[in-house]
Task: inverse folding
């Protein structure tokens, strides 16, 4: 059952990003009903959950709320991957299994992303480390994203997975 909720959250977020404007529960409901039978209260709950998680902001408009995406689809996907990975009792094995599921194109995208992340790092922070030496899960520094948290070490640099 939890995956179905995640699928519905994804479907709602997809509409919020596509429309790129404040949306109401009713608008999302009507669009979702073209694909499946779904209750107003279900969509309302999902949108409230997304608000509680920090993925959408809402503003009162009459008797309804209007919801707007807080971050990009890429940040959302990254947070979902980070959340799933952090729940593993063996993160290295989870990554190996994940990489095994990737298509050659996805692997090339991953290699490009690792190169970009390393290029964005200031000198002396481990950017020259080889694979596996910098701590899996580290990414480029940037704004805080929902679902993505890193601890700071004594020297003020981020420590991931330690």
Result:
């Amino acid at each position: 059952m939890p995956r179905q909720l995640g699928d519905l959250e994804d479907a709602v977020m997809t509409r919020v990003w596509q429309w790129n404007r404040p949306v109401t529960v009713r608008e999302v409901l009507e669009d979702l009903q073209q694909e499946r039978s779904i209750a107003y209260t279900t969509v309302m709950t999902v949108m409230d959950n997304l608000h509680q998680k920090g993925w959408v902001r809402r503003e009162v408009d009459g008797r309804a709320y209007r919801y707007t995406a807080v971050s990009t689809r890429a940040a959302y996907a990254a947070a979902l991957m980070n959340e799933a990975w952090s729940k593993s009792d063996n993160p290295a094995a989870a990554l190996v299994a994940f990489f095994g599921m990737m298509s050659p194109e996805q692997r090339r995208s991953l290699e490009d992303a690792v190169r970009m992340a390393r290029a964005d790092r200031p000198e002396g922070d481990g950017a020259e480390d080889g694979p596996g030496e910098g701590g899996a899960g580290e990414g480029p520094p940037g704004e805080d994203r929902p679902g993505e948290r890193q601890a700071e070490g004594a020297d003020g640099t981020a420590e991931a997975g330690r």
About this structure: The longest strand covers residues 56-61. Residues 2-19 form the longest helix (18 residues). The radius of gyration is 19 Å. Confidence is low (pLDDT under 50) at residues 127-162.
